[in-house]
Design a protein that fits this description.
Helices cover 59% and strands 12% of the residues. It has one domain: P-loop containing nucleotide triphosphate hydrolases (Rossmann fold). It has 9 helices and 5 strands. Strands 2-3-1-4-5 form a 5-stranded parallel beta sheet, sandwiched between helices. It is an alpha/beta fold. Bound molecules: adenosine monophosphate.
Length: 190
């Protein structure tokens, strides 16, 4: 099963991605997590990525694409994968298309979590207090929502035209959303 999970910052992608990946026995690949791991390890990639992340901006496509290309070539991605937070720009969609075409492995579905944007900001502010993420200040949160609307929301239409979009209501308790996702994905052929 090859899946993408999309949705604005705070939609609960990471939480839901873990459950879906477990269910299908595939790795959940979060570009945000990979960047954060590099930041904590102080790698060259982390140093470069951090200034964008701290400002709520996207890390440049060349850096992100190269990282994802490497990750998808790993052995554990053979049975499939769930991409969380990638692609986020039209240029990333094109690169992912190329990677998948070269491997002869098309996407099965693009899961989109739909949520109310004001509730999102509140959720992110609550998360900031618990996790202390540097990119969870109110100003940066608002900027991340803007960047999502400008650069990533248009991808929904792109995947919609390809007929692979699975839209799920992301509001409510984690378990309720998980149940909706399971039901929606049950209709997707593997
Ligand atoms: P996330 O944990 O998915 O919210 O990602 C945190 C931050 O990592 C984002 O705000 C971006 O700065 C960066 N990032 C994650 N994924 C991407 C991507 N696909 N393209 C560019 N930047 C990304």
């Amino acid at each position: 099963m090859r899946l993408i999970i999309m949705g604005p910052p705070g939609a609960g992608k990471g939480t839901q991605a873990a459950g879906v990946a477990d269910q299908y026995g595939i790795p959940a690949i979060s570009t945000g997590d990979i960047f954060r791991a590099n930041v904590s390890e102080g790698t060259a990639l982390g140093v470069e990525a951090q200034r964008y992340m701290d400002a709520g901006e996207y890390v440049p496509d060349e850096i992100t694409n190269a990282m994802v290309r490497d990750r998808l070539a790993a052995e554990d991605c053979k049975p499939g994968f769930l991409l969380d937070g990638y692609p986020r720009t039209l240029a990333q969609v094109e690169v992912l298309d190329g990677i998948l075409a070269d491997a002869g492995t098309p996407l099965d579905a693009v899961l989109v979590l739909t949520v109310d944007s004001e509730e999102l900001v509140q959720r992110l502010l609550a998360r900031a207090q618990v996790e202390g993420r540097a990119d969870d200040t109110e100003e940066v949160i608002r900027r991340r929502q803007e960047v999502y609307s400008e650069q990533t929301a248009p991808l929904i239409a792109v995947y919609g035209e390809r007929g692979v979009l699975v839209s799920v209501d992301g509001m409510g308790e984690v378990d309720e959303v998980s149940a909706r996702i399971s039901a929606a994905l049950a209709g997707v052929t593997t």
